[in-house]
């Protein structure tokens, strides 16, 4: 990989507790940091501080985990949630976990001429009057990197750090 620094800022994972149904009122009233307002949102919003993670818990047994900065921290937070659900009397097994999105910030250590890039390359979108950056899409992976004039970027849609690194390499290869 080229000399580009990146940092994962957020990971979103789906967590499936197969054959489970959750009583959301019970969860909301039993877990500190959990809120349930069905008129606003159909699930329980649960925030943990150690490890830091947020969960969206649905009656169907499906859960979204977000707000962690590494897979290891997410897995630890999910293990903790699973144990808490068991203590509340829910019959849950180890869930199926899948990364849906990783968001990373990056520094390319150089400035970009976004208009030149937009004129010369496919798979880019640049509308400066709408958005101050350029959207560079990596087709095969459903990954996009938002590039900014000052040389910074944001990667969205990746499902692994390898995909983030591949996207960075592709951007560098195309614009150099």
TrEMBL record:
InterPro entries: TBP, TBP_dom_sf. GO terms for molecular function: DNA binding; DNA-binding transcription factor activity. Gene3D superfamilies: TATA-Binding Protein. Keywords: DNA-binding, Repeat, Transcription, Transcription regulation. SUPFAM superfamilies: TATA-box binding protein-like. Sequence repeats lie at residues 99-175. GO terms for biological process: DNA-templated transcription initiation. The keyword Transcription regulation applies. General factor that plays a role in the activation of archaeal genes transcribed by RNA polymerase. Binds specifically to the TATA box promoter element which lies close to the position of transcription initiation. HAMAP family: TATA_bind_prot_arch. Belongs to the TBP family. This is TATA-box-binding protein. It comes from candidate division MSBL1 archaeon SCGC-AAA259I09.
